[in-house]
Design a protein that fits this description.
1 helix, 169 residues, elongated, 8% helix
Length: 169
């Protein structure tokens, strides 16, 4: 689910960047540093604006200045039970790996409907019901998230396609 968060970040700036365009450089650096990153709880999709940039504080002994920037960002946090669209990146006997944007999702073969079977002889290897449903690399899937796991700078999820209206698109 997408949210609008007010966040804060401290950026250090070398003295060679001091001048009339310091605030412009700080905003550009903020965008480069945080857009597309994962905090462990959510993904920062887009920085909308930097609404407060503090006065620089010179760090003793080094000459660099620290600026604290408060900004608004659109973030995405996946929740247990959320239905998402994914693209399959890998298929093996154990299940399917897919990406929902930057979030990797694993769908175990136990969470795939029983009529869709593993076919190792196909090229490329795939899950298929010998009809219109084929799950192979590049297939678009609708997945229900069963659970998420957070690490310091990354997230991972387990998904299912075993319910109604889930599976290939």
């Amino acid at each position: 689910m997408f949210f609008l968060h007010e966040l804060e970040r401290t950026i250090t700036l070398h003295p060679s960047f001091f001048g009339p365009r310091t605030k412009e450089y700080l905003t550009t650096r903020l965008l480069e540093d945080v857009e597309g990153t994962c905090s462990g709880q959510y993904y920062i999709i887009c920085v909308l604006d930097a609404f407060s940039i503090s006065e620089g504080r010179v760090v003793p002994g080094s000459g660099v200045a620290e600026y604290t920037i408060q900004y608004r960002a659109v973030v995405w946090r996946p929740f247990k039970g959320e239905t998402v669209d994914a693209i399959v990146t890998s298929v093996n006997r154990m299940g399917v790996f897919a990406d929902v944007g930057a979030l990797p999702v694993f769908v175990s073969n136990h969470l795939i409907p029983p009529d869709i079977k593993w076919d190792p002889n196909a090229t490329p290897p795939q899950y298929t019901d010998n009809g219109d449903q084929v799950i192979e690399k590049g297939t678009h899937l609708r997945i229900k998230l069963i659970g998420t796991r957070s690490d310091v700078g990354s997230m991972f999820a387990i998904g299912s396609v075993k319910e109604d209206f889930l599976g290939t698109l």
